[in-house]
Amino acid sequence: MEAPLIDFGELPQEVNNLLQRGVAAYRTDRAEADALFRQAWALAPQEFAAYFCLYKIHTYMGNLAYAAKVAREGMSEAARQAGWSVDPARWPSNEAASGGPARFALFTLKALIFIELKRNNREAAIRHLATLELLDPSGSVGWTVISQLAQGIQRD
Predict the structure, then answer these.
(1) Alpha-carbon radius of gyration of the chain
(2) Which of 39, 51, 55, 156 could bond 74 through an S-S bridge, CB–CB 3.0 to 4.6 Å?
(3) Does residue 110 form part of some domain?
(4) For residue 2, is it within any domain?
(5) Distance between CA 119 and CA 66 in Å, rounded?
(6) Domain that holds residue 147
(7) What DSSP state is assigned to residue 87?
(8) How many whole angstroms separate alpha carbon 28 and alpha carbon 114?
(9) pTM value?
(10) Is residue 52 part of a domain?
């Protein structure tokens, strides 16, 4: 087998295969990529990589409502695995930037902010950004770039 297109980390082989096929398909057949990512998600909804693939491709394709939905579901799954509330405002800041589910939750909150900005839902984006700033003051998940983008949008 050839080298994977993306290193998704430790995943069941069948899930990884579906995701790799989806990544390859995205270049030429977005519907096929979407179907493969959804199949991986259905097979292993506890694995974060399928959420990431789905919200990312739907953001790229402009399906922003669906991208936001998948991002929220991914955050909820990560919060569940971390033993947190589904409400990001109630997440513990002292553990937030660690690895595993906590990091995925923060990273996906950052993605949701970007999606909400693209949806022109500035109020939700700014609210989530304020939460993320408290949870990850060092900016370890890269939210500072999104913050600059949000500030630029607010000035326009």
Answers:
(1) 16
(2) 51
(3) yes
(4) no
(5) 11
(6) 13-155
(7) S
(8) 25
(9) 0.88
(10) yes
